[in-house]
Amino acid sequence: MSEDEGIRHRVTRQGEEALGKIAQELLENPVVTGALSAAFETRERAVRAQEVAMGALNLPSASDLERLTRRLRGVSQRLEGIEDALDRLEQRIEGLGSATAVEQRLAAIEAALGRWEAQPSGAGSGAARRGSAPAKRSAGAGRSASS
Fold first, then answer.
1. Under 8 Å CB-to-CB from 3, ≥6 apart: which residues?
2. Neighbours of 50 (CB within 10 A)
3. Residue 144: which H helix or E strand, with range?
4. What is the DSSP letter of 120?
5. Which of 63, 40, 43 minimizes the C-alpha distance to 51?
6. What is the distance of C-alpha 24 from the center of its chain?
7. What b/e string do you get for 55-79 counting C-beta neighbours within 10 Å, with b at 16 or more?
8. How far is residue 97's CA from residue 134's CA, in Å, rounded to a whole number?
């Protein structure tokens, strides 16, 4: 197996060297380089003529479509950034909207106050005294203000 691999490696290397020499000779040949440059110039003229013709027909050229594609990609990326920022903002608002914990605490306090107010006045002597004392004071204060 290693002998086959060695032969294959040697043949591949020789083939690459031969192709490299051929390419180098072609590039050094003035006829080939002249033909290549003429082909590129012709291609550029054809592209310009196509753009002029498409413009005359009020149709977008390939370069117009490429610019539009790049622009759309940019807008798309900005929109994704805005969506991400909105998602983060929504999460923060939901976190702040956890006022449900505060609301639950207030509901518990209101329930405790409701139970305290629902107790009969004689149930706790200290509570009854505390509850009756402000009533007397407010009644007395009302009399002195009306006098």
1. none
2. 13
3. helix 125-146
4. -
5. 63
6. 50
7. eeeeeebeeeeeeeeeeeeeeeeee
8. 39
Residue with token string 């310009």: 48
Tell me the three-class secondary structure of 26-88, residue by residue.
HHHCHHHHHHHHHHHHHHHHHHHHHHHHHHHCCCCCHHHHHHHHHHHHHHHHHHHHHHHHHHH
Question: Which two structure tokens, joined as six digits, stand for 12?
Answer: 């591949």
Say if residues 61 and 54 touch (Cβ distance below 8 Å).
yes
The token pair at 54 is 């498409």
pTM: predicted TM-score of the whole model, two decimal places: 0.38
Handedness of CA 122, 125, 130, 136 (dihedral sign): positive
In which region does residue 94 sit, left (phi positive, over 0), alpha (psi from -120 to 50) or beta (all else)?
Answer: alpha
Rounded Cα–Cα distance for residues 141 and 147 (Å): 10
Query: Sign of the CA dihedral 19, 21, 27, 30?
Result: negative
pLDDT in tens, 11-33: 999 999 999 999 999 889 999 88
128, 122 in Cβ contact below 8 A? Answer: yes
36-59 pLDDT per residue, tens: 999 999 999 998 898 888 889 988
